Amino acid sequence: MPSPEERAYPAHWEADIVLRDGGTARVRPITPDDAERLVSFYEQVSDESKYYRFFAPYPRLSDRDVRRFTHHDYVDRVGLAATIGGEFIATVRYDRIDEFGRPAGEPADEAEVAFLVRDDQQGRGVASALLEHIGAVARERGIRRFAAEVMPANTKMIKVFTDAGYSQKRSFEDGSVHLTLDLEPTERSLAVMRAREQRAEARSVARLLAPGSVAVVGVSRTPGGAGRAVLGSLLTGGFPGRLYAVNHALDPGATADMPAGVPGYRSVREIPEHVDLAVLAVPADQLHTVIGDCGEAAVQGLAVLSEGVGRDEQRELVRLARSYGMRLIGPGALGLINTADDVRLNATPSLRMPARGRIGVFTQSGAIGIALLDGLDRRGVGPSSFVSAGNRADVSGNDLLQHWDEDAATDVVLMYLESIGNPRKFTRLARRTAARKPVVVVKGARQRGSAPPPGHAAPASRTPDATVYALLRQAGVLMVDTFTELLDTGVLLAEQPPPAGPHVGILGNTDAMSLLTYDACLTDGLRPRPVVALPTSAAPDDFGRALREALIDAATDAVLVTVIPTVPTQLPGTSGATGATTDPAPPQSPPDGHVEALADALREAVEAVATTEGAQRKPVAVVHLAMEGLQKALARRGLPSYPTPERASRALSEAVRYSRWRAEAGDPGKVPDLDVDESAAADLLARFTPPAPGRGRALTDEETAHLLRCYGIAVQPTLAAPDAEAAVAAARTLGFPVALKTTAPHLRHRADLGGVRLDIAGEAGLRRAYGELTEALGAPEELRPVVQSMAPRGVGTVVRGTLDPAIGAVLSFGLAGAPSELLGDTAHRLVPVTDKEAAGLVRAIRSAPLLFGWRGAEPSDTAALEEVLLRVSLLMDDHPQVVAVELDPVVVAPRGVTVLDAAVRVADPGTRPDLGARRLPAY
């Protein structure tokens, strides 16, 4: 048996964390090699902090102390350290104890815990983060409670414990505060952890987007190159902070070769003042050295524009940056922009500083980022902030969502994603952000399936894109299909109020365009009102009056205005009043004055209605053709415009979808209190589940039926029929009529291959069917026939529950057979499912009308079906060992449902990542 010193080092306990101020630190187990680090750390701790830790003056550590605090068995005695730049900034340790407080081993489930934080690091949330991590370690080692003795004057440490959200007891004994914490995660502890995560990650992004000083590393001495372009962008954009240029080939103190007298240095470490952000545009093979220099200079964050960095090198660079407390954007990034008046940061090679706007933009592609900025500019809209993260080895869309969620300067979020590294977290963050502001996403690289693009620091996911899309839509994300739709939708949501419903008023001076707009609205699920036709010669005032009337109409929720150039009433080539014949003239764009007058009339109509007491604000968009200058004129007045009816309708339909989601999210329903036997199911699973993590097994039919019965799900019984006489005996037991079917894997659920015979009314018919079955498909030993009672006729459906490591437990529903298997007509919801979500799940599939009386059929008992969905959801939520459930088919009759076949797979799920301590991803 290995000695404590020989126990394997638990590398999976290592983690990078974001602290309260946005900086990073590394948490790792303490080892015997840390003796000198521990002594150095202790020397930097104040006498007061030492007194609070040891309840007595303790100026220095003895050799025995150093050995005790660096030698652990990683089971009963564990120590963790938080480090920055390789040096300790805080430590925590636990020692397992028995009920009398004496050192103990397993199965004792309580441990004494103690912290020590360097004084200059206090207030950064280090102790709170260490408590999460030591708590996760303790749970892994079978410890359920922490005990702590704290001096009453040590109010900071008492607050760390009391604010953690764990169930706890507190007493005052022998002059100290005695605290006992139950380590099982609670709703409050999870809420506390996620709130801290949000604040820390948001702050880490805010530090990148609002630096007081920027150093550009890799600025060439002559015009050209990405580094010099970024420096030029910072200068022309009006960045008010300090700027520095870095080029290792510069002469010491040289500034003559740098633009606008920006001071130049050979290394970031030579810069005499503090640097907040470093933009790196150096060859990939120099990044390790440059990032190390930035870390030694205490730079707060990095934007890495360099390309050609392999995934292994990316991991090493990220680990190096985080070890110094830095976040990293890139590699392969275009850069970042903040248009706030007091920041004016343009750290990209694009010289043009965008106009100030209220749209947050995140992209994983530099080319798409440039196109997005250009598209917004052409629509007269600007970003609040912009981040192009390239391979997003560190800072990702999740981090930006954390920032934009609380950013008062951002009203809409646009994201171009090529991979989603942590769909579970992204879905959670997107749901929270979407409750406050729209989140619009387009995903590229969809043809790659679940594999990330080359070079991207993200793991491949087993979750199909269709499932991820469905779950993101459930979370309120507007998933659009194209880059153009991303811009169209984002601009409408940023410029206009959300529509209260799908009813659209349409008015214009062109019947053809208005009818096309009407058809487009119907196609996109909107409800257009009758078209209000204006004459082709309609003046701006005519448009204004018509728009006011449409906005005042209580039957409309939004208005689309269609416009073509005014056609003169006097056509060329005809006689005028004088009898003269006019010469034909080519069609011309309207004069600037007409365009401006039209834009003014539309804007004045909107404002007039908005200022009317009791009037509801409604979105307005314009569809126009051959109206040169109208788009810019409307953009200056905050009115979005589109060159085709289809684009306007699609954008408006997404806005309606978002409004509907927000209304429903305000009342999500509840998880009903169903009559289940949770303890009996837990006992069964304790027997059925293999103890080793990662090793699962399928339950037998008998085990499956027993487990599902605990949750009120009855499976129609079947009896084996190894021969014809056994089949007859089974039918007598069950009662005619019966079904005869094969259970061989290659024929299961394949009625189309003749493996199922239904409505067998008597023994003779059963013998005949048995003979036909075995003659056509093979011997009974191969087919494994069974006999089952007939279920009431109804609609066949499929209910599935799966535990995906990347996204959590997912409940899926569809109709059995071709609709779900061939057409992919399935809907998905995250577990646990509420009553409203179960009802929505049934109605979300395209083939749902078959359940609701299509073509005069009697409607199915969808209430009973929804209860089955809720019971499967509850089973998976209560018991994470259940990694897969399949009920196929579930026949939904006009009264009641029948589960004809079921399969369950169980496995030790290991630690749920969403319940563990906060940590940055390490791909």
Question: Could you characterize what this model shows?
Answer:
There is one protein chain. The protein is of the alpha/beta class and 923 residues long. The chain has an 8-stranded mixed beta sheet, sandwiched between helices. A 7-stranded mixed beta sheet has the order 16-15-18-17-19-20-21, with helices on both faces. Helix 8 links the parallel strand 12 and strand 13. Helix 6 (187-209) crosses helix 11 (397-405) and helix 14 (483-495) packs across helix 19.
Query: Order of strands side by side in the largest beta sheet?
Result: 1-2-3-4-5-6-8-7
Largest sheet: 8 strands, mixed
Helix content: 25-40%
Shape: flat
Radius of gyration based on Cα positions: 34 Å
Percent strand equals 15-25%
What distance separates the N and C termini?
34 Å
Mean of residue pLDDT values: 90
Kindly state the number of beta strands: 38
List the helices and strands and how they pair.
Layout: E1 15-18, E2 24-29, H1 35-43, H2 47-54, H3 63-70, E3 77-84, E4 87-97, E5 110-117, H4 126-140, E6 145-150, H5 155-162, E7 168-173, E8 176-182, H6 187-209, E9 213-217, H7 226-236, E10 242-246, E11 264-265, E12 277-280, H8 287-296, E13 301-304, H9 311-323, E14 327-329, E15 335-338, E16 345-347, E17 359-363, H10 366-378, E18 383-388, H11 397-405, E19 412-417, H12 423-434, E20 439-443, H13 465-474, E21 478-480, H14 483-495, E22 503-508, H15 511-523, E23 527-528, E24 532-533, H16 540-552, E25 558-563, H17 592-610, E26 620-624, H18 630-636, E27 641-642, H19 645-665, H20 678-688, E28 696-698, H21 701-710, E29 718-720, H22 724-734, E30 738-742, E31 756-760, H23 763-777, H24 780-783, E32 785-789, E33 795-804, E34 808-815, H25 818-821, E35 826-830, H26 835-844, H27 862-878, E36 882-892, E37 897-899, E38 902-907
